[in-house]
Structure to design on (329 residues):
């Protein structure tokens, strides 16, 4: 019994016991990095609450009409609320519209479900508007929120939710799950388990979209070239990537961060598996050429740049400053 989910057995068991014993909360906050399985677990809980023909108490069949509609987020009693795009803003009007829908009785399910995705993107007015619902939730309504961490939402919201903190899985567990559950070849599953950083949702997304893998390869190739490029070429690259409004700049930096963390592991002699195993030879070569202080400086600079970008600073200027922090080889 794991609700058809790869990993996070402890979380499924906790939620399952609550539902079986009739002790479910009216609001849950699922936290963790993107792709770790926050939304998947929330939808599985919605299935467990509303399945038409459960295999056992709070054990959804995953095949009935209700389970399938919740899986595809198309059930009439499911309200999905999120910003228009990743990095956007969830608006107060969306919360008020949701509150109007939740005031009505369930149409087809036992419980109405409100799924609020990436709630760290909520405008302050939207977050404050949600507080009223959390303080006086309608009967037969369950609110399921996702966010990167509980600190990224208002403390008054986090305190009114049962917080389920999800963490990346061991690479081997993701690899095994991809092979057995989705019949992905062993070599590909091994690579996906590593480069996803143990995030099963992200690994599955990579397996279904070759363009994402090609994009990653291109970004890592760019990084290798930039390490031997002069300042003019680096600034030109910063201009290029920030002019492309369709390029997910945060994803680019996150990809580079996984590379530099691999370099850090080798530099410190840590006994941990690398994420970018298909780049191991060049990572080993880079680790032999630079010192620990330099690696830490680059990682701190990348993380700082990500923080700046999340605050809507001048993206080109932020990237240019980061380019100056890259070592020149």
């Amino acid at each position: 019994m794991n609700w058809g989910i790869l990993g996070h057995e402890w979380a499924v068991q906790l939620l399952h016991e609550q539902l079986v014993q009739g002790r479910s909360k009216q609001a849950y906050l699922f936290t963790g990095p993107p792709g770790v399985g926050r939304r998947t677990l929330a939808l599985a809980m919605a299935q467990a609450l509303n399945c038409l023909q459960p295999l056992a108490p709070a054990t959804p069949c995953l095949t009935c009409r209700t389970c399938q509609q919740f899986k595809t987020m198309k059930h009439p009693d499911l309200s999905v609320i999120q910003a228009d795009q990743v990095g956007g803003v969830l608006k107060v009007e969306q919360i008020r519209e949701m509150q109007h829908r939740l005031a009505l009785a369930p149409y087809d399910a036992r419980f109405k479900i409100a799924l609020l995705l990436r709630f760290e993107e909520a405008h302050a007015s939207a977050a404050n508007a949600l507080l009223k619902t959390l303080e006086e939730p309608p009967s037969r309504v369950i609110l399921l929120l996702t966010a990167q961490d509980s600190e990224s939402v208002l403390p008054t919201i986090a305190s009114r939710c049962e917080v389920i903190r999800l963490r990346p899985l061991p690479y081997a567990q993701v690899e095994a799950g991809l092979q057995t559950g989705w019949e992905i070849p062993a070599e590909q599953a091994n690579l996906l388990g590593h480069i996803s950083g143990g995030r099963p949702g992200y690994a599955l997304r990579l397996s279904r979209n070759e363009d994402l893998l090609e994009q990653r390869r291109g970004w890592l190739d760019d990084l290798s070239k930039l390490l031997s490029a002069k300042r003019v070429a680096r600034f030109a690259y910063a201009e290029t990537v920030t002019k492309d409004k369709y390029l997910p700049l945060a994803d680019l930096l996150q990809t580079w961060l996984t590379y530099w963390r691999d370099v850090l592991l080798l530099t410190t002699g840590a006994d941990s598996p690398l994420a970018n195993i298909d780049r191991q030879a060049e990572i080993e070569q880079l680790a032999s050429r630079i010192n620990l202080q330099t690696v830490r400086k680059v990682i701190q600079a990348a993380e700082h740049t990500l923080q700046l970008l999340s605050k809507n600073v001048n993206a080109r200027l932020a990237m240019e400053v980061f380019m100056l922090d890259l070592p020149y080889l």
Observations:
- The mean pLDDT is 95.
- The first helix runs from residue 9 to 20.
- The chain has three domains: 9-165, 170-208, 210-325.
- The longest strand covers residues 141-147.
